[in-house]
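task queued by scheduler; priority normal; single chain, no ligands, no partner chains; default sampling; output format set to structure tokens
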Amino acid sequence: MQTDALIQAGLNLIGQALSIYDSDLKLAACNARFAEMFDLPDRLTKPGADFEDTIRHLAARGEYGEIDDFDSFIRVRVEQARAFQPHYMERSRANGRTISVEGAPLPQGGWVTVYTDITEVKSQEQLLRTRSELLSEEVLARSEELAATNRKLAATVSALEEAQRELTEMEARTRLTTEMMPAHIAHVDSAGRYTFSNRRLSNVMPGRPSQIVGLHISDALGADAYARVLPHLQMALAGDPSTFEFTDGISSRRIRVAFTPDETENGVYILSMDVTEETQARAALQQTRRREMAAQLTSGLAHDFSNLLTIILGMQSKLARMDLPSDADPLITATLQAARRGGDLLNRIADITAHRAWRPEPLDMQIFLSDLHTLAAPSIPDGIALDIASPINRRILLDPGQLQDSLLNLILNARDACGITGRIQVSVTEIRDTWIDFTVEDTGPGFSEEALKHALDPFFTTKGDGGSGLGLSMVYDMAKLAGGQVRIGNMSSGARVSLRLPLRYAARHQGNELVLLVEDSADLRATIREMLTSLGHSVIEATSVDEALALAQGVPDIAFVLSDISLEGAGLGTELVNSLPRKPVYLMTSLPASDPRHQDAASKTAVLPKPFSESDLATFLGHKVDAA
């Protein structure tokens, strides 16, 4: 209110009359000189006064002289105001005074008008005309025209300066907005050179430059990526928009690109986004749906087949007790073995089609690999060397149970390929902060041509009766559940299987940090708070998503958020993961792993199952826990 009073006082000091009307033709502001010049009543000088009422009042008082059609005159003035155009004019008033009227539109709608009393200036011009006998009529006329033109030019320059200021501010806001978007926005001309970029290319496709204006698109993207986008770029230059995805060879990220033709300049607008995580989640969801369909298709068949095997086993048991010729015993034994093997196969099919979910949790890679070596070593002959190594010391979000089963499966397959002597190498590498690769190599004979084509297919085996053909397909299934992939191939000596999974780092917290605890149960909140403070953390608390967001925005020092999934109010704790992208958000829950809310949470971040102890919480957060 004090600022408004200061602004009004400043306007009142101006010697010219000033009025500002908004887009609804309502008075937004005016100065005292406006009321004095037109002798307006108070009701027409207060904010909200109607423009039509003001015109009607002035016309009724004779401001515009005699008017033949009063209503038509008012209507025309109001219509002109609604379609307001910048202008400058001079007119004589009914009281004999002369004023100039200079109007300019406002960017938010409405306009500002400045009225200047130029009676004295006009009088001087008239005096000059009547008293000067030395100057010709033409010179005098030119002088008057020049004076009027100068006033119009001054008004035009003022309007242009205001328009330039607005355009500069608009351009700055537009650039700031585009640079804050998590996508690369650009424009190339018909020759393929960048004419605009929001400098986000290096964020979407690491390894590329940020300053690319003036560069050719092939120089900015590199040969491989340029070859992938070139057909779509040519389509867009020909006038056909396109949207497509490709995997960037340099960064290993999945990129979605939209090309939109620019018909005005024969160029192309480009929008590109990193959709790696979306693609991984989509692949995991597709695999889950395929598994559900497979389970539905096989459950009925497996049930009937199981009943048939039970009958066969029962009949063969009766045959074994009957007095049959001696040459019948091997046939009975073989039939029993085949039936039991069919039962084992049913169990494997049940395992591969049963509901499973990828449940990542913080995993210390060195400890995990050490445990893997301990489990695998007893099954490896003395003549085969087993090396398991990784330079990764950070904690990774992975499902330890499923990953361990898959790696053990690959190690045992490599053992079988090596025979009695050889070498098995297990290595772990990070791929550009996007993927983590678990690679198992052996010195066996390698995959045959047929195996390279079908090794990942269910029931394909090269072990004869000794194999079910489900080992590698279960590894493939696990990788797809995680949103990853399996690659097989041969080296110069032996085979290689690479298990590529999404790379998600788990933070390591060592205490002395501020934690936002979100839990709607007061008793449970007190217990978890005590655990966190025992680990050295400071704690602030919330009971709902809205309260947590308000605290997170008001307290910038929060190191991470620990939230229950089910909270007070309608919001779920999972909403905090997307709402607070710059803060680590961890979730905890007592919901079963089969619950969709638990599964959705596990796809977004690490989840700590309830109940848990202080030691469990410390391990979850990456604290070093004493062995004692």
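post-processing summary
- The longest strand covers residues 422-431.
- Confidence is low (pLDDT under 50) at residues 464-469.
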